[in-house]
Structures
1.
Amino acid sequence: MAGQTSDPFTMTAPTPAERVSVLIVNYNAGAGLALCVRSTLSQADEVIVVDNASHDDSMQAIRELANEDARLVIIANSSNLGFARACNIAAAASHGDYLLFLNPDCVLAPDAVAGLVAAMQADTGAGMAGGLLLNADGTEQAGGRRLVPTPWRTFVRAFGLRSLADRYPRLFNGYDLHRQPLPKEPVAIEAISGACMMVRREAMCDVGLLDEGYFMHCEDLDWCMRFRQRGWRVLFVPSARVTHFKGVCSRARPVFVEWHKHCGMVRFYRRFFRHQYPGVLMWAVMLAVWLRFAAVSCVHLARKWFRIRPA
């Protein structure tokens, strides 16, 4: 797979007994990182934190925890290598049969890992599973369960055309599923969020690691697509509850984040939808992506300017 620089078959072989490894990539996550790690230690056989050269004090508490618990492993990168590459570094160092990729701004409910593992053990064709992402107020967060955001679905969402879905549901439905009733049991869906993504090692070795051509954002969608192309199901597990304090790591540099998000969108669309949007249509999609980036960046810059403008 183009853009990948790590070989999944060089990873450490799992032990005979099924184990769970939690893999967390940190970049200036602040005090929330310690909350995240503490929520995992009672649920996993090992927890690996890969730090992408953070310059805040987020790792101080983690080093103290590591001194107290040998299951907590720290890998310190000398620079910010991006989310996908750091995840692959963690995966290569892990020993679990199930790998839970978890954002540092997430806090697991006490039985979240057990719920994900149980769902995957019950469905041997499931290659990955995601939990129910919750906002701080307990409401379901968008993005935890979704359809693949094709260029058309993204266009529908960006221009507010979802209001037409009642009359033309197939044409104007968006891709977020959180507005639909919450299922009572695990269900197969098109995509989950990389904020909380459990992967079966066997499936990862079949599909390959995350594509390091994505610096941040869209690498999870890419992985979901590749898993499904290889015949592995993607599960949404509503009983596995995860509170996601979204955006903690990206607030300081919103334009930087938006740049890489839109670069990821372009890479994703070109890889999976070039055959559906040939020639001029794909160029139109790319133009729309960059126009959106320009608009969003202007909003962020304007907000920053008004905040620092002297009274």
2.
Amino acid sequence: MPGVQCLCNNQKKEETKKNMIETKTSSASFQFYPITLDKKALIESYTKPWGAECSDLSFTNMFIWGTDGKMEYAEKDNVLYIKMDFKRVPVYFWAPIPKYGETVNYRKAVYDAIDYMKKIGVEPTIRSVSSPFYEMMQEACPELFIQPTDIAWDYVYEREKLETLSGKKLHAKRNHVNKFLSLYSDYEYRKLEPSMIDDCIALYDQWKEEKDEISAELKEERQSVLLALNHMEDLGLVGGAIFIENKLVAFTLGERLQPHLQLVHIEKADASFEGIYPMINQQYVKNECMEVELINREEDMGIEGMRKAKRAYHPVKMIEKYMFSPRDLSQVKGIWGWEEE
């Protein structure tokens, strides 16, 4: 695997054959810390060099969603560990992230995480595993069971397509934008500035009140949106907004995750303005994403309406994510935290 000298490859193959399920490791103790703004450089020193396109590896996502102990990090033996502790979901880890270019025993890193989860009494799972860590885990721990977690797969689009909406597949979206332009020709697109934060939150609160059902994630989303807005400069975020008659009616916020890829974190709008969502999507891409090739609009969380909307833009690819576990969990209830509700 380029970028890391993995001791689990050649000299560990015989050991793996002899002992496919259990592995002896040193103490699986960790010292976990909250993901705070002052840790951005540290965490990105692990994540950025890999060039991964997965939204999970955005420091912004860790920071805005990981408050109150929901996400914590630890360093050990040139490896970064991210631990998740969300309500209704058993504690789990993301794939261990080695320091790029350093020599690590990746098999040991994986089993340190597994042993930690065993010690605290939860079913060991390593989730949201995407490339290149998917391939590293397969090679290091071929005995682990793998299960796709498609509710977490990221939707990735060609920037040019989102801007021009050209082609038969995007005909409906193009019509929505044209309808918006015919109804609200006096609209104005503006780059998001701190002075607009109060208006953004007012719009968010209006949007949330109009939702028929509020998921557990949406119940906590307001705090995450506020954190992102209040720390735009520190997090390297760039946003855009649409105004009609000098009133903010849509806003979006994203970041340059990789030189070729923009990651969109937040997009909210007043749906009473016909075509507003296709319009803010197009205008943000047109004005703030000219230097990239791809746009990652994150996952659909298994929400049917969100899934339908994201598929309607016809992604050029999906960032696939998987769950690794020591035993087959495909028929086990409670792993995701909501199956029995």
3.
Amino acid sequence: MPVRIPPIQCLLTFEALARLRSVTQTAEELCVTPSAVSHRVKQLEQIIGTKLFGRADFSLTVEGVEYLAHVREGLGMLQRFPSSAASSGKRKLRLAVTPTFARSILIPRLRQFTEAYPEIDITLQVSIPLLDVVAEDADLIIRFGTGRYADMEHVCLTKDEVTPLASPAFVREHGPFELAQDLEGEPLLRSPLEPWRTWFAAQGLDWPEPLEGSQFNDIGLMCDCAAAGMGVALARLKLAQPWLEHGALVRLGHSDAFTRNIPSPHAHYLCWRTGMMERWECVAFADWLKASLA
């Protein structure tokens, strides 16, 4: 049987609703009634046999994100025809990202987004938590912290767990490690982003936060130094995955103290200024990132 191509009005309505996230605004843009918007979306979902919107706020399903990329590509080709020399009119999206999140989590996935949305040019800028290193005029910001951000709207992207990690050579030279108390006297690498007291408390230790030892304001740098044998890092497992996969960092032992993961009190959040989600490229990236990390 021939594959049925969805009506163009259904595709236009889907693209507009995914961009505007409002039935009323979509209806106004397309000069139709709100009920017509809902009817067209339902018709499109029936034709392609999949659900495109997941919740009442019109956030896209994983299939919806993928299909939206194809729809926009097709609509873009129709819009450019017949003048192939017309300006591409690419949209610009400026992202402020913490360094290790960018290297470990975002960049390995970013090609998926650029292939799905070739009409969006991305500028990546570095921001460092707890310091005044903030990317200027970023459209979207990825922050790491408690989530109490009164200055911006935000959504939690991913939580993580922590555990002590060190280089294989360090474990051989300083081990064996069986109890949490075996870390007493060992060089503990420090970061205000991930205080040791979280892990100490989970192990039933009343030890104070270490006041001596090398300190880092970037988790990636701390992992690099731990891999070089400088000491033990309390590392977030998702961010430390590249070092673990290559064997540069390992767990200290096989006992419960070193195999049980402890939830970090902090998480990564996607943040934006009020009104920023009225831009479809911001919505597209936010929906894609949440779906890719789910």
